[in-house]
Design a protein that fits this description.
CATH superfamily: Transferase(Phosphotransferase) domain 1
Shape: globular
Structural class: alpha+beta
Radius of gyration: 14 Å
CATH class: Mainly Alpha
Low-confidence stretches: none
Order of helices and strands: HEEEEEHEH
Mean pLDDT: 76
Helix content: 25-40%
CATH topology: Transferase(Phosphotransferase), domain 1
Strand content: 5-15%
Number of helices: 3
Largest sheet: 2 strands, antiparallel
Length: 101
Amino acid sequence: MMHLEANNMIHRDLAARNILVGDGGIVKLADFGLARIVDEAIYVASGGGKLPIRWAAPEAYTTGEFTIKSDVWSFGIILYEIFTHGETPYSGNPFQAFIPT
């Protein structure tokens, strides 16, 4: 994550499925299909492509704005996946965490 930020990159698809663990515990981040090198702190997506909704930060799917902070949100979801041994985040409803009670 620090390396991505230091190189002005936003991954936009951080999820456990995109983390590779090799011999000796070497971890590599894969699938840079949605990644962007940015000049500004915010990248605004255009075109309405597919978005991994369960891993996307709320502002990413409501406004299309991606930042390193939205990658940090996705990293939190990865931690959820790790600590729950692979449960799908928001398995009942992808929006349930954001629906006011």
